[in-house]
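Please supply some protein, with fold tokens.
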Amino acid sequence: MKKEDLIFDERGDCDEVVLANQAELVSICMNIDYIEKEEIELIFKDVALNIINNSNQWYDKVINYVKKETNSKEIEVACIYIHNFQKDGRYIFGLSFISDLEIYAEHGIGMNLTVDDYDILAFGDEEVSFIINNFH
């Protein structure tokens, strides 16, 4: 995906995107407060493109992790949340997942990772994917 193909609205939401190894489209949202549109264009578009274009580097890792932790057979990424917080100079992004297990239908599944090296920082219900605790 190219930078000009990634269009965010005034709320920081974007059209759905394609990830490596997943047939279903994924929503991408900027979970950022008090950021000017120019900053989204200058900084966060590059962060989003890094996550999307390098999904082949993190996708299997996170899918296998979620399957192991939840005993789910089928997992898909539903949404990517890009945060304006950093940990050790690395931006953080969240992922929410759809599972085949009924137990996760109400509260979902979520995790936070660092951009570039894709370290898993937090895992839990879907709220984890869009709420940052103790990372900054």
